[in-house]
Amino acid sequence: MKYAIETYDLTKIYGDFKAVDSLNMKIEKNSIFGFLGPNGAGKTTTIKMLTCLIPPTSGTARVAGYDILENPDEVRQQIGMVPQKVSLYEDLTARENVEMCADFYGMPEDLKETRIDELMELVDIKYAADKPVGQMSGGQQQKVSLVASLIHQPDILFLDEPTIGLDPTTKRVLWDLIEELNSSGHTIILCSHDMYEVELLCDYVGIINQGLLAAFDTPQGLKDTVIKEEESLKAREIGTILDRIREETPESEKEVIEEMKKSGTCAGKELSMLITDLSDELIAELESLPVTLEVKRHHTGRIILELDESCDTAINDVLGAVIRNNARISSISTRDPSLEDVFMKVTGR
Q1: 348 lies in a domain?
Q2: Three-class DSSP category at 65
Q3: Stated pTM of the model
Q4: Residue range 82-104, pLDDT digits in tens
Q5: Which of 48, 250, 265, 346 is the most exposed place for a label (fewest CB within 10 A)?
Q6: Residue 20 is part of which domain span?
């Protein structure tokens, strides 16, 4: 089986509202898949259908090889779910909570305790096995929730905002654990609004917007496809172009600027320049440009301009300011787009 999850025109309609619209996607087995979308985009509805909590209006899906409509019980045996809000009995100990889950899945008594001990050691929570969940920290509770979701040895694990509200140290512990679970053969479906987390962990990312699958690729593939990455120009090439700008007439300046754009120097949002003879006057003029949102000055003579999206005029204005102040640009580079940039562009939010 190549794919852990396959959806076929998966659709959910509530009255006149189409929450999920003909969703088609394939998630590879043993991968970490990031499922993103704005609030109300259809992400939660999709997960509920894939975990057999609600039926689709039309279409279907195969999860771990089983059809969600024809074989829902088999699907449930192959999946584990860690919800955003930990669902544990606070007056019971960690072990007692997990034992209840094991009993729910009908695990034999001779295997249950052994499996609980193994999982608690795996997530490093065995030391608190007999501690009431209500007395645990958020990170500890999340680990217990993970153990409970893994007790029946599912192939696919759904994680809904698993690190929300956790401190940075505990976040990293859980990130390591997610990667370890994936390495041991689990397919991970990660729903998160933490773009850094998704980019760090996920092999593939899908973005749903207004019920439609708006993008699907590797994190790098999304960045390459949705936002064109700009190339850096070598210092020699920059110098040649600037010399031509100084020598040419205003009529030919536009042609040179266009050449510069084609060379890949138009910034998407950040333009980094190493400038010789950098003066306070030049900084002030750059800060006053309509295309400039912010100028950050480094002690090395490098400045970073955060530009708006009017790139057609940005290069012209910036280079004009540099020339008027008798400075020279040694190098220009642009910041690569982030997954957050992709998300904002795809969803328009």
Answers
A1: no
A2: coil
A3: 0.72
A4: 888 778 999 999 999 999 999 98
A5: 250
A6: 3-225
Question: How many angstroms separate the CA atoms of 145 and 109, rounded?
Answer: 20
123 and 247 part of one domain: no
Place of tokens 């852990």: 4
Distances (CA, A) of 294 to 49, 264, 288: 45, 21, 10
Low-confidence ranges of the chain (pLDDT < 50): 229-238, 248-254, 256-257, 260-268
What is the C-alpha separation between 318 and 312, in angstroms, rounded?
Answer: 11
Between CA 30 and CA 201 the distance in angstroms is 13
Per-residue pLDDT at 292:
63
Q: Give how many domains the chain has, as a whole number.
A: 2
Query: Do 117 and 251 share a structural domain?
Result: no
- Alpha carbon of residue 137 to chain centroid: 26
The answer to whether residues 130 and 157 belong to one domain is: yes
- Token readout for 304 is 């970073």
> Domain check: are 118 and 7 in the same one?
yes
Same domain, 79 and 112: yes
CATH of the domain at 152: 3.40.50.300
Q: In angstroms, rounded to a whole number, what is the distance separating the alpha carbons of residues 311 and 228?
A: 13
Is 347 a domain residue?
Answer: no
Which runs of consecutive H residues, i.e. helices, occur in 135-249? 138-150, 168-183, 195-201, 219-226, 235-247
**Distance set, CA 297 to CA 213, 283, 307, 328, 334 (Å):** 41, 8, 15, 16, 15
Q: Which of 6, 187, 165 is nearest to 80 (CA)?
A: 187
Token couple for 8:
């076929």
Task: State the residue for tokens 């510069």.
Answer: 260
Do 315 and 187 sit in the same domain of this protein?
no
